[in-house]
Each structure stands twice: as structure tokens, then as C-alpha cells.
Amino acid sequence: MGGFSTNNFKGFVLALLSSGFIGASFIIKKKGLRRAAAVSGVRAGVGGYAYLLEPLWWLGMITMIVGEVANFVAYAFAPAVLVTPLGALSIIVSAVLAQFILKERLHKLGILGCVMCISGSVIIVIHAPQERAISSVQEIWNMATQTAFLLYVGSVVVVVFILIFHFAPQCGSTNVLVFTGICSLMGSLSVMSVKALGTSLKLTFEGKNQLIFPETWFFMVVVAICVITQMNYLNKALDTFNTAVVSPIYYVMFTSLTILASVIMFKVLSSLSVASYAGCCFLQPIIF
Prior knowledge:
This protein is an all-alpha fold. Helices cover 78% and strands 0% of the residues. The protein contains 11 helices and no strands. Homodimer.
């Protein structure tokens, strides 16, 4: 079983807080998107940006930012394989709030899905791997520029471009996998960059200044690009489809891709026992 260190515990608590805020933000933003569409007559799903003038949408955005900041700090303490699956809580929060606030009914199958997501997250937490200490941003850069991870990044970029320029215009408004796919793919890259940036800032606060290295600023730019892209297409998905559909699909795709990216970049599973490896690689995806 993977050791649950002090840093892992800090990351665990921050990830739980993050999921609570992010789950609530989905509902607040959805409410804001509905109000903006009612006033302007143009929905975000078809290219409207009237929601930028809606205070309720901005409240949801601020709530999401608070959650993402907590998530950002969590990645500095714990491995992505531990932090990311805990996003299951955001599904529970959004599903419950959607039923009471948005009047989007949660069916029995949805409840079962929520329970299964929580079960998968518990398995990941139990088998969370210890992350080896990182001493500099250059060390993360070496991981990010290894051939296997570069192939992953290249594949993600190609698929995202195909989804944006080919599938989104044709079936983005009818197939939930298009917008959520773009968010999830870009999300897996943003998590790796956030992990790198968070670790760099953590080392800087500990007295080992990483801001003097261009790699730190490169990761910051990547985070900005990925997050902006995610937010744009997540708004489209939330405005077009039921929240109870978007949240779990986005969560499962995002989590699966992030774990894959983390395994490739950080090789977090290489030091696990057979039992822990089975828990992380086999049981958790089956439950998801």
C-alpha cells in the first residue's frame, strides 16, 4: 500500500476543499448562463458571450477560481494520481445542487454513478503512491521533455485541433463528448503544468528560487493557455447539456487522461507494490 505521508494528507484535504468549491461553481455558472441567455437571446453554446456581463456567472467563476487555487496548492504537495480522482466530490456537490437549484432530476442510475465515483476515489486514496522529492524545475522539465510524454502532448494537441475545427462546428451542440473531450484533453496538460508550476513555487518559498529559470515561466504560459481553453468549452458544454450529464463525463475523461499523463511523465506507478498497482490501475478504472 502506498504511504500516506504528511504532504499527501495536506494535498488530500486541499483537494476535498477544491472539489466542494468547484462542484458549487458548476451550478452557479449554469444559473448565470441561463440568465444571460434569457436577457441577450444568444446562448454560450452557440458562441454568445453575454454571460461576461452577468454577475451571477462571475460569482460562479470566483468560486471556481478559489477551488482551482486550492487544487493548485494540492498538486504541490501530493501526486496527481491522488489529487485528481478526488474531484469525484465535485460531481456529488453539483448533482445535489442541480436537483434543488436547477431542478435537474438525479435519477437512480446517476446516484449509482456517484457512489461508484466515490468508491473509485477511495481506492486511489488508499493506494496513493509516494512521490519522490523534486529539487528543481529543471528536473520536472527533463520529465516533461522525455520522448514518451512529448508523444502524448503531440497526440493531445492534434486531437484537440480536430475536435475544435472539425467536430465542434458539426456536432458540438448535439454530442456532449466534443466539448467535454476538449476540456478533458487540455485539462490533462494543464494539470501537469500546474504540478510543475506549483512545485516550482513551493521550492521558491522554501528558499530555492525557481523564478529565475525560464522553464517556470514556460509552465505558467501553458497553464494560462490550457485553462482559458478549458473554461471556454466548459461554458459551452454547461450551456448546451444537462449539468448532471456534463459533470460526470467530464470528470471521468479528465481523471483518466490526467492519470495517464501523470504515469507517463512522473512514472508514479513504478515503485508501487502489486496490490497498490492493482488498486490504481485496475480497480479504480473499473469503478469509474
